[in-house]
Amino acid sequence: MKKVRVLIFIGIGVVLAAVIAVIITVASKFTASSMKLEDVRGTVSLFNVKGDALKPEVGVRLFDGNRLDTREESRAVVLLDEDRFVYLMAESGATVNKKGKALSLSLDRGSTYFYIAKDLANDESFEIRTSTMIVGIRGTSGYVTTDENGAEVLYLTSGKVEVFLPEKAEGHILDAGKRISVSRTDGDINVNIEDFSSLPQEAVDEILANEDLKKEVEEALGWDDDRISGATVDNGSANGEALGIGGSISEIDGLSISNEGYAIFGKYEQDGDLSNGPDPIEWEIHDGGDKGYLLVSRYVLECREFDVAGARLTWEDSDIRNWLNGEFYDEAFTDSEKEMIKLSKVLTCPNPFNGNWDYLETYDKVFLLGAEDIGDYYHYNQYYDGGYEWCSEELIVAATPYVAEKVGNVVISEMDYYDENDDYSLMYYEYSPECIGKTGSYWLLRDVMVNDWGETGIKQVLWNGTYWDGCLANFGEDTGIRPALYINK
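and the corresponding structure tokens:
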């Protein structure tokens, strides 16, 4: 009997030891029900649910209600387990939500890249939430961002996800190579799903930094190393690539050139967040010949009247000219940048309203484009004799979030493009289908004119990149402003 009892105790001891070993192993391993900081670079802030600041150290566990914020040139990497990463990019903010094995990250500013190499178990879930969409993730990779027009965008680089849109009560299944953009216009939710052929630079950088991820993306998208390395785009903003010679210029003395070919020059409020200061201005680059390089703001930067009183009916005497060469010039540029800006001779079309049939000549540092500048630097999709109407896909330009509510942004829909019963559809104007989903706004030129109906006003470009003489801006009407200037070659 003693021998039997000894064997029983030994057996129980072995089983207990095995159970303890399993418990220790499980307890020491992070699962999809856990999150921790894997890497911290630059300036990263961590807060608890009460808003108290915590130390964002590598290895610290994240709990429900924790918030992460990153500053410029900073990044935080969140680890779900050894094969599941979420990268919070620079100038981004997100809150951790945890209910058992249901995890989510609520992204309220900036961008994040996710790489879930190992599929989640059936009882686990992970979501990335924005203000307009919920991305259900199991085993895939992709990039979520808010573009400069305020649209929330998902690029799916591998696998498959379900995207749910709460405000529309609808869901979409996305495969690798698809991009979904969700935006609001006058309270309506606009959804655009399309294939993408390029990626934002942040996403490309993360893909190239991880060999396993790069192989997965290459296989999912059918891209090679060169295709990924050169696959950069401008976060889904209005025009996609620089106009004129933008994109072919890699260096101009004293200027930074973005990957998309835009000049970075000066600063002005654009994102609508006054607490973070003015934002770098991006400019289209055009070859002005002997005049130098013509820079035209990529976006509509302000909303102002041509003339406050509506009494000064020439560019020479207008309030907008004074503002551009005074307040804007002083606010947007440093002393060293001002030295680069040329004092240029600007010719404005005749103004028959004042009995002036001669071109108006002024000398300006900053100015608005004129109708003849449009003809010199942009491609027309259609042009009508007499110069009274022209249409150019290249002139679809969005307003920044800072002025979008004042001047109005319009997202081009399929109806705008395909309506065969509308002589003013963009297909009728010979635009390409790629314009669907772009965002356009209204912006002023510097030319005053009298149309065939005897109406006097300022020429303006409409949200769809068209101009016609029956749609003039009033002198005292707030309209979008795109500054332009010349710099030396």
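(Above: one complete record from the training split.) Confidence is low (pLDDT under 50) at residues 1-31, 233-248.
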